[in-house]
Amino acid sequence: MREFKTESKKLLDLMINSIYTNKEIFLRELISNASDAVDKLNFKSLSDESVKLDDEDLAIRVSFDKDARTLTISDNGIGMTGEELEKNLGTIAHSGSQEFKAENAESQGDAVDIIGQFGVGFYSAFMVAKHVRVVSRAFGSNEANVWESDGLEGYTIEPGERDGHGTDIILTLRDNEQGANGEPGEDYDRYLSEWGLKDLIKRYSNYVRYPIQMMVTKSRQKPKPEDAGDDYKPEYEDYQELETINSMTPIWRKHSSDVEQSDYNEFYKSTFHDFEDPARTVSFHAEGTLEYDALLFIPGRAPFDLYSRDYEKGLALYSSNVLIMEKCADLLPDYYNFVRGVIDSADVSLNISRETLQHDRQLRAIARRVEKKITSELESMRDDDRDAYETFFENFGRGLKYGIYSSYGMKADELADLLLFYSAREKKMVTLSEYAHAMPEGQKAIYYAAGDSRERLEKMPVVTGVLARGYDVLLLTQDVDEFTFQAMREYVAKDMPKVYEDDAAKEAAAKAVADGAEPELEDRHLELKNVATGDLDLATEDEKKDAEEATKENGDLFEAMKDALGDKVEKVAVSARLVGESESPACITTEGPLSLEMEKVLQRGPEGDLDGLPKTQRVLELNAKHPVFAKLVAAQKDGDAEKVKLYAGLLYDQALLVEGILPEDPVAFAASVCELM
């Protein structure tokens, strides 16, 4: 009995119980080792003319014996001598594959794709096996050797027999374990079934470059006997056939011009379990200091759990065609969590278990490139296929908005031009850029209103007032919308017609254009303004003057209404938004950063019933041109304090109803209406 070197027993025990978190990856590791062995022989045939090989004969074979509880992985690769068995399997963490890569770095090229790095993958077999037997015969040698170990005390190496070069790894699997204390047991029998092995091969090793073959059971109809009568019923029999389980050539390694879109669609649907074709497919190959292949899909519909806590984002990460992680979250920002796809790179730095990535600059570089590619594809869809983009945005737009909000506006430059909002004037979805370029001369802000439905927003006095002045209003109907605009604060509109400081400069520019010069353009910073908050500064000088005079003349009335409403409002004032007799008699606006719609969203949250939530600073604005205002003025002059109080409450509650907010006391509101009737 030979002892493992360099405290190997402790290291082996640590690795079996700690390094790998998922036992089923042992098959991936052993198949990868077999692929490396075949690759080494293939490389030898390319560099040594005396070595003659038929590429079609190179393969990996997987077989099992239920009764003996053995699983065998065989290859016809380079094989190992007794000394190499001692070196490679007797010394844990010695990687023969890594050594081979270093020795042949300059001449290896694309013809060889060595996977191994750390020299520990082989020992993952002991997670499922109580005994491992390795029979290997080196290429060009007439002798074979057998390495055996139970993974506990050590190993033995003895002479053996094998027909032809290559290696057989025979695992004697552990017995099934019963669960205890609510914990599930361990079912090792799944590694002794045809369906179980096929599933693992397809999941982790589907794109290993050599055929992975296995005898599979199939069914066929028996020939009809010559003497069978008319009532003969077909009979079937099972038979065994050697079948290649893996696909070998991954679709992402192929040039996009050589792949039909239908093939991409089929790969997407089968791999990511969707029944609809993807909306967009992005395939590219990156070269340079970091080389990788990428195949990305923008889904045609949102998965049902996209906005749930259980949803996991991420791209499938492969290294040399071997699956490392099914969902590598670090390759996608949260706002592109809906993207599905594959990244395959031999250059990323893996940790020892190959189950997770080290967080290094290569990973960040790939993530940045992927993000730019997705953004570019979405911009292309927005500009070239607007209907498709609007469907996409309906499915996934919330995530883009949240990306701006959650980054406190830091991602606005990347995402703002991908957003769509409904235009009250155009009656369609528009981008912020389209809104800006359609603004009348002199407009300095983007106006919006937030609520739960377009229909209600379009009828709100604060919206109709802005539209009447010739300015468009964006109608925001998702709960995240206004928070997104608050985080952005402003939008930088690119390539806007230049605004000149005086008429002389404007005339000079117009003359230059008439003489053939290009019109001057500039980037314009546009504030995002809620039409229901603050001073929009849209009133004319005459309207401002009328409002000031009405305020001075009726100071006592406003003070009385404020006393009647108490802390419900910060103040009562004449409105510069409502100036026509046919418009609403009053409206509710707010001061400060919190709007009525934001307050409603916060109240719907998990802590919406707590007293500690922030409250809006409400202002009741009165339309001085409306007949109701004259009634108020008359009641104040007559000293009818009760009528002023009644009118103040009714106007306030009415304005709340327009905003979609129920009065605090609906019964009292109904009683006040009846009293007036």
Automatic annotation (TrEMBL):
Q: Which portions of the sequence form the region Disordered? A: 534-555
Q: Where in the cell is it found?
A: Cytoplasm
C, as annotated region: 601-677
- Domain of life, per the record? Bacteria
What's in the keyword line of the UniProt record?
A: ATP-binding, Chaperone, Cytoplasm, Nucleotide-binding, Stress response
Segments forming a coiled coil: none
Compositional bias (Basic and acidic residues): 541-555
Which family does the similarity line name? Belongs to the heat shock protein 90 family.
Q: Tell me how this protein assembles.
A: Homodimer.
Q: What is this protein called?
A: Chaperone protein HtpG
Q: Which organism is it from?
A: Collinsella ihumii
Q: What is the lineage of its organism?
A: Bacteria, Bacillati, Actinomycetota, Coriobacteriia, Coriobacteriales
